[in-house]
Amino acid sequence: MEDIQPIPVPSAQRWREFRIRLLPAVVFALALAAIALLWSWVVVPVGLTGEVAATQYQVRSLADGALEELSVVPFSLVKKGDIIGLLIPTAATSLSMDMEVEVSAFELDRLRTGMSVNRNLLELSTLELQRQKVFSDLQVAKSALNIRKAEFDRNKELLAKNLQSKEAYDVSASLYAQASTTVDQFQLQLEGYETQLKGFKDGQKLLEVRGQSDAVDKAIQSKTNAMRFAARPLQLIAPADGVVSSIAFRAGETVRAGESIVTVTSTNSTYIVGYIRQPISRLPKVNDQVNVRTRNFPRAAGTAKVLKVSGLYNFMNPAMVSPEGNRHEKAISFMISIPSGLPLHPGEFVDLSFAH
C-alpha cells in the first residue's frame, strides 16, 4: 500500500479547469485595462476644452486703386516686412487730367487778354507733363523691381534649403531681370526729358510775359507735386511672420480704401483659449495649473497656467461642441499659456483638465 503512486492529472483536464476558473477573470481584467486606456486616449472631456489661438493680420488698402501686382498665393510663407504686393492709386490719373485742364485754362486767359502765347512755354509745359508721367512710371517700375527682388531672394533661400524647385527659381530670376531692364529704360527716358527741359529753360526769354509765365510755372509745379505724391505706388507689406491664409483680390482688380486684400495667419501661437461648459463645478482662477493634451496620436501632454479669466459666457466654436458643427453653445472662456515643449499649431483643438 505504501508503494501506490497518485494518479497524475491529465493536461487536458488542467487546461479545462484553467478555462473554467481563471480565463474569464483574466479576460475581464484585460478588457477593463483596454477600456481605461482607450478612455484616456480617445474620450474627450465634456466640460473643459480649448483651442490654440490663431492670430490673423489683415493687409488692407490705404486708398482706392488698382492692384498692380501680388507676389503671394494661399499658403505662402511670408516674413514681417516682406513686400507682397503693389497698389496703384486711381487719384494719379485724375490729377494728371486736372493738371492738363488747368494749364490750358491759363493759356486761354492769356488769349482773352490779348497776350501772345509763347510756343516755348507750351512745349515746356508739354515736356514737363511727359517727364512727370515717365517719373511716375519709373516709381511704379522701381516698386515692382523691389517686389521681384524680394521674391527672387526668397526663392534663392528656399532653393538653398531644397524647399523650392529650380524651375520656380529660374522664373523669379527672369522676372527680376526683366523688372531691372524696365527700370533702366524709364531712367533713360527721364534723363532725356530732363535734358530737353534744361535746354528750354536755359534758352528761354520770356521778359514780356514773365508774370504770366511764372504763374503758369507755379500752377504746374503745384499740380506736379500733388500728382507726384498721389501717384506713388503703395506697397503692401506683410505685418508679421506667418502663412497667407486667404486672398480677397487678384492682380488687376480694383480695390477700395479700407478693403482687406490679404490675410496673414501667424505661425507662432502665444496662448490657448479654454472653455468651461455648463454645468460648472469649478471656476478657473489665475495661476491655476491645467493639464493640456493634444488630440493627435500618440497624444502629447503638458502642464500650463491660467493667465486670465473672462468671467463672461461667450459662444464657442461650433466644431468644439459637436462633429456636425451646427450647435451653438456658450461657455466661460479663459486664457492659458502654451506648455513648454508641446508641439501645438494655431487653431488646434486640445483637451484640458485641472491639475490636482
What does this protein structure show overall?
- With 356 residues, the chain is α+β, with helices and mostly antiparallel strands.
- Among the domains are: 94 residues, Elongation Factor Tu (Ef-tu), domain 3 (Beta Barrel); 154 residues, no CATH class.
- The strands form 3 sheets. It has a 6-stranded antiparallel barrel with strand order 1-10-13-12-11-14. The chain has a 4-stranded antiparallel sheet with strand order 2-9-7-4, with no helix packed on it.
- Helix 3 runs antiparallel to helix 6 and helix 4 runs antiparallel to helix 5.
- The longest helix is centred in the middle third of the chain and has 42 residues.
- It is elongated, with a radius of gyration of 37 Å.
- About 3% of the residues have low confidence.
In a few lines, what is going on in this structure?
This protein is an alpha+beta fold.
What tags apply to this protein structure?
single chain, 356 residues, alpha+beta, Elongation Factor Tu (Ef-tu), domain 3, six-stranded antiparallel barrel, four-stranded antiparallel sheet, 7 helices, 44% helix, 24% strand
Which structural class is indicated by helix and strand composition?
A: alpha+beta
Overall pLDDT: 79
| Quaternary state of the chains | single chain
Q: Please give the share of residues in helix.
A: 40-55%
Strand order of the largest sheet: 1-10-13-12-11-14
Report how far apart the termini are: 69 Å
Characterize the biggest β-sheet. 6 strands, antiparallel, barrel
Q: H/E series, N to C?
A: HHEEEEEHHHHEEEEEEEHEE
What is the CA-atom radius of gyration, in angstroms?
37 Å
Strand content: 15-25%
Q: What is the 3D form?
A: elongated
Contiguous uncertain segments of 5+ residues: 113-117, 205-209
**How many beta-strand runs?**
14
Number of helices: 7
